[in-house]
Protein: ABC-type lipoprotein export system, ATPase component
Organism: Tangfeifania diversioriginum
Amino acid sequence: MIQLKNIDKFYDAKFQRTFVLKGVNLEVKQGEFVTIMGPSGAGKSTILNIIGLLDEPSAGEYYFFDQPAHKIKEKQKVQFHRTHVGFIFQAFHLIDELNVYENIETPLIYRGIKGKERKALVADLLDRFNIVAKRGLFPSQLSGGQQQLVAIARAIVGGPKLLLADEPTGNLHSEQGEMIMKLLKKLNEEGMTIIQVTHNEKYADYGSRIIQLEDGLIRQDYQLEDSELNM
Ligand code: ADP
Ligand code: ADP
């Protein structure tokens, strides 16, 4: 599904070039739940952003379902975002002025999906995530865990094949963090490919594979023993 070939990312200042990623090679198959770990500044968010086409590699190739994603033009990236990937962040990034229902509905409006179908898709997620009663509330009226639930609903309502999560539990207390991780695991079991970045070792176990990144290099890459992909 995802193939990164010799990806470099660097920033040039006057007399020096700073490498954030140094020739990263990575393949992710459909159905995997990959956790990228590593110290702050290792380049974790940068990899995720390159995969989600929020950032561009300085060199190297990126194939998404065998298509050269590194060649996608700026204008077509919007289309890529709308149809192929969902993104969630540490800070949720919900729209404060919209209520729960409207936040989840937003990507469907951008995709031009008609009212009746929108209603059905949003209602289905409110139901599945057990937040029907919260549909009229605004983000400021929700706990962090509930906000992340809504952000996940918004990220997947359009049916992407890939969910990218940057420190999804970074702002949550452990109980809420676990609730979110269990939900991600469930989504993965239902077929969603997930790549997450986390600092927290205990949340890495929910996935099927761990990648350790250090100084822009993959130092370790292994499957978790009890993951279904190994059975
Ligand atoms: P991000 O860099 O993912 O957007 P922030 O800007 O909120 O996240 O994080 C600020 C700094 O804190 C960054 O250097 C980030 O790597 C670090 N950081 C984020 N989450 C954690 C965490 N759970 N534990 C330790 N450091 C963290
Ligand atoms: P992580 O997610 O592992 O904490 P990031 O991918 O967020 O790491 O960042 C990796 C490195 O890239 C950091 O050291 C950061 O300072 C550097 N970096 C990010 N953006 C820029 C920029 N515009 N110019 C220079 N360095 C940058």
